[in-house]
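In response to the reviewer comment on reproducibility (Comment 2.3), we provide here a single inverse folding case reported in full, input and output, so that an independent group could reproduce the run without further information from us. The C-alpha cells appear first.
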C-alpha cells in the first residue's frame, strides 16, 4: 500500500466507524486502546487529513473519514475474497444438491456462498430455490430438497426434521448518526416505544417483532413499514425513525452514504438464528454431506 498505510489501520478505522467508540473498536480488534489510537493518528498523518473528531460520548468520523472508511471496507472485503480463493481446493463430487432458502438468507448470505460453492465443487450442480419456510419444510419431507438453509429460530418443532444452528445474530437498535439515542448509557424498549419505528416486513419478521415487544407489554409506534431492507436502512440513516434488526443485515452506511449506529438495549432480545435443516433418520449422501460441511465451515468463519 502507498504511504505506509496498513490493512490493520484500515481495520481499525472501519471498526471505529461501526462502533463510534475507541474502547469498543479496540475490544473488537483485540488490541489496546492506546495501540489503536496511535495507529489511527499515524493513518491521519499518512493521509494528511483528519478522519475523526472526539465528542463527549465517543468519536464521530469527519466527512473525509466517512469517505475513506467506505473505501477501506471495500479493500478489506477484497483481501478476504483473495484469501478464500487461495484456500479453495478442487473436489471430484458429482450429482445435484437441491437447497431451499428463505428470503433473508437469499439476500444476505447466498450470493457469496453460491459463488464459493460453485468454485469449491466445480463438478457438482448446486441448485438453490427461494421459498417461504413452510414450503421448504414440506419440500424436505417429500425429498424435493436435500437441504434447507433458513432462519431456524422461526421453525416450529418438527419430529421428522433435524436442524443445526450455525450462527446466532444479535438484534440491536439502529439509529442515525445524529440521533441523541446513541448516547445514553441505558436504553430500553419503553424509551424506544416513544420514537417512530421503521418496520421491516420480510421473512416472518413482523411476527417476531410483535412477539418480543409483547413480552414486555409494549408495541412499537410504526411510522413506516416496508419489505425493502434498503428502504428501512435509508429511512433510519436519514433520521426518519429507528429500527431493531440483526447484525446479519447491518451495514454501517446507507445507499446515500449516511452512517447508521447500532446500540444495545437493556432488554434481552431474541437472536436471529441461521442454520441448515434436513430430513431426519436418513444418512446424507456424500455430496450433500460435503455441501453441509462447507456451509458450516464458511458460516463459522464469517464475522457478522
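Designed residues, in position order:
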Amino acid at each position: 500500500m502507498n504511504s505506509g498505510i496498513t490493512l490493520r489501520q484500515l481495520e481499525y478505522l472501519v471498526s471505529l466507524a461501526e462502533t463510534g467508540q475507541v474502547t469498543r473498536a479496540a475490544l473488537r480488534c483485540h488490541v489496546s486502546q492506546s495501540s489503536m489510537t496511535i495507529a489511527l493518528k499515524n493513518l491521519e498523518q499518512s493521509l494528511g487529513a483528519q478522519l475523526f473528531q472526539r465528542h463527549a460520548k465517543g468519536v464521530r468520523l469527519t466527512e473525509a473519514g466517512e469517505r475513506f472508511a467506505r473505501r477501506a471496507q471495500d479493500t478489506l472485503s477484497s483481501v478476504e475474497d483473495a484469501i478464500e480463493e487461495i484456500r479453495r481446493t478442487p473436489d471430484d463430487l458429482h450429482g445435484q444438491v437441491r437447497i431451499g432458502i428463505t428470503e433473508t438468507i437469499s439476500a444476505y448470505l447466498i450470493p457469496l456462498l453460491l459463488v464459493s460453492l460453485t468454485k469449491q465443487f466445480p463438478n457438482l450442480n448446486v441448485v438453490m430455490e427461494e421459498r417461504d419456510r413452510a414450503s421448504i419444510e414440506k419440500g424436505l419431507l417429500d425429498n424435493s430438497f436435500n437441504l434447507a438453509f433458513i432462519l431456524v429460530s422461526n421453525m416450529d418443532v418438527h419430529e421428522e426434521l433435524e436442524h443445526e444452528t450455525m450462527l446466532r445474530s444479535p438484534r440491536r437498535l439502529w439509529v442515525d448518526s445524529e440521533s441523541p439515542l446513541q448516547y445514553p448509557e441505558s436504553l430500553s424498549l419503553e424509551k424506544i416505544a416513544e420514537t417512530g419505528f421503521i418496520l421491516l416486513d420480510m421473512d416472518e419478521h413482523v411476527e417476531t417483532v410483535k412477539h418480543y415487544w409483547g413480552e414486555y407489554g409494549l408495541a412499537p409506534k410504526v411510522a413506516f413499514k416496508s419489505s425493502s431492507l434498503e428502504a428501512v436502512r435509508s429511512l433510519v440513516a436519514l433520521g426518519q425513525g429507528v429500527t431493531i434488526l440483526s447484525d446479519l443485515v447491518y451495514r454501517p452506511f446507507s445507499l446515500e452514504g449516511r452512517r447508521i449506529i447500532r446500540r444495545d438495549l437493556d432488554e434481552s432480545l431474541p437472536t436471529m438464528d441461521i442454520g441448515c435443516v434436513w430430513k431426519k433418520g436418513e444418512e446424507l449422501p456424500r455430496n450433500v454431506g460435503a455441501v453441509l460441511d462447507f456451509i458450516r465451515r464458511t458460516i463459522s468463519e464469517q464475522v457478522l
